[in-house]
Structure formats: C-alpha cells, structure tokens
Amino acid sequence: MARALWKGAISFGLVHIPVELISASLDHELDLSMLDRRDFAPIGYKRYNKRTGKEVEWDDIIKGYEYKTDAYVVLSDEDLRQANVKATQTIDILAFVDASEVPLTFYEHPYYLLPAKGGEKVYALLRETLRKANKVGIASVVMRTKQHLCALVCVGDAIVLNTLRYADELRPTDDLDLPASTLKAAGISDKELKMALSLVEGMSETWQPEQYHDSYREDVLALVKKKIKARQTKTITPPAPEPEEERGSNVIDLVALLQQSLGRKAPAPPPRKRATSAAARKAAPAKRKAA
C-alpha cells in the first residue's frame, strides 16, 4: 500500500469527507548518474553551511523565511500548520464546473483521494454526484507550504485530485505566431478538411492505455546491456555528424499527403512544359513561313 502524502478532509457546504492523498503517477524516468569523465567516479552533492563551509546533516536542517538580507524567521512544520489550520487540513471545494470547461493546459499532477475510516459512504456520494452531473469540483488545498488550485475528478471508482496551474502561470497565446483561426484565413479547403476527417476516422479506436509504452527508455536500457556485453562500459561514443538538410520547395501538397495517408494513389503531377531555346523560337516562324 502506498504511503499517504497528506491527510485531511474534503469540505463542501456542510459535508466533511475524511481522506488521504496518494500520488497517482509512477516515475519511470531513466536514472542517470553524473560521472567525472576523467575517472568515471560518481559526482555527489553536499548540503553545506555557507558560513563555515562544513557539511550539514539532514537532522540539523530547518526552514526559514528571509525577511531581509541574511536575516531569517525560523518556521517549523508546526508553525506552518498553525498559520492556517483549515487551509492545511482541508480540501475546500469552491465551485463545481463542467468538466469540458477546464483546458488540458491547466492540469498538472494527479493524486488519488482515498476515504479515511468512516468516510466511505459520503466519499461514494461525492464520486457518484460528480459522475452523474459530469462536473469537476474546483478546490484549494495546501501541500508542502504551497496553496494549490485543484480539480476533483471522478475517474472510475476513485476521486482524483489533479493540481491545476493558476491562470497567471500559463503563457498567453496572444503573442504566439499561430495559424489563423478560420479555415479560409488559414488557407484550408473543404476538400482538405474532409480528407483529414476521414483519416482521423480511419485511425480512431477504443482508448487502451496499456498498449502504449516508453520505447525510448527500453531502447536505452537495451543499449546499456549491449555495452556491458561488449565490455564497452567506459567507452564514450563521439557525437555523429549532423545530417545535411535537404534543400527543396517549402510548398506542401497537402492533398497528396492526405491521399497517401488514406492509402490512395496521389494524382500524377501535370507534365512540365519544355523550355524552348532562343534559337528554336527564332526558327519556328521561318518554318511556318516556308510551309
């Protein structure tokens, strides 16, 4: 059983649901260590006292807020909790909104909410209410000294708390060089749109997440095994030369690409007109006159 990262309660109206927070994601990133290329020894990091230069043990580290240069207010975990007990122990639902109204760019990190002892029935009630109403609960919660905006979402039999970015944490699109918002202004024809929709329809299938996997990570680990077997564990592979970019026209025949994607034969390009030489052009009137 995963360890709870946070314990508290969901609160909306007069309803109080005791819950525990469990991370919903598993980290499978490649764990690469940094080495000194001269002797391949691992590079370590030290927590040190900036005044004495000596290393500091974890048990001697506390938190502090710098209120002016080199002057700190010490804040213990209990200080941080007592500053606002309700905020640190409650997931406070502020509103319910349609699930489709929250853009994907706002979603940040998912956590499972589990009912604590005695909270099973009211947890199930909130879950089914979210499901039937097709709503998400917009809430605030304090975790690790930061107040998060979050969305409570019904996913299967679980309520998922997904932390959200605040609006001012997202880059506005106004200053981005994006294509025009209408088909006509973007230069897209009805034919191109219909063919693109046909391609999407042909590639549509039921969502099966287990069929997707991190093939890059698997390839890197296969390379690791290959280098171990070949006894090349300390061989530094030099960078390969950059491939030269092919020079060509920037004009894309979108219809031809779509037809190829749909498995159709693209129409043959129109025959190119032969360029006539200056001598041939001068001889042509003479030939017609002689005829």
UniProtKB/TrEMBL annotation:
Family matches, as CDD domains: KU_like (cd00789)
A GO term for molecular function: double-stranded DNA binding
> What protein does this entry describe?
Non-homologous end joining protein Ku
- Which family, according to the similarity comment? Belongs to the prokaryotic Ku family.
SUPFAM superfamilies from the xrefs? SPOC domain-like
* Gene Ontology biological process: DNA recombination; double-strand break repair via nonhomologous end joining
Per the UniProt entry, the signal peptide is: none
Q: Where is this region: Disordered?
A: 232-251, 261-291
Q: Which HAMAP family match?
A: Prokaryotic_Ku
Keyword annotations for this protein?
Answer: DNA damage, DNA recombination, DNA repair, DNA-binding
The record, for InterPro entries, names: DNA_bd_Ku70/Ku80, Prok_Ku, SPOC-like_C_dom_sf
General function of this protein = With LigD forms a non-homologous end joining (NHEJ) DNA repair enzyme, which repairs dsDNA breaks with reduced fidelity. Binds linear dsDNA with 5'- and 3'- overhangs but not closed circular dsDNA nor ssDNA. Recruits and stimulates the ligase activity of LigD.
Positions of the Ku domain: 53-181
* One Pfam family matching this protein: Ku
Q: How does it assemble?
A: Homodimer. Interacts with LigD.
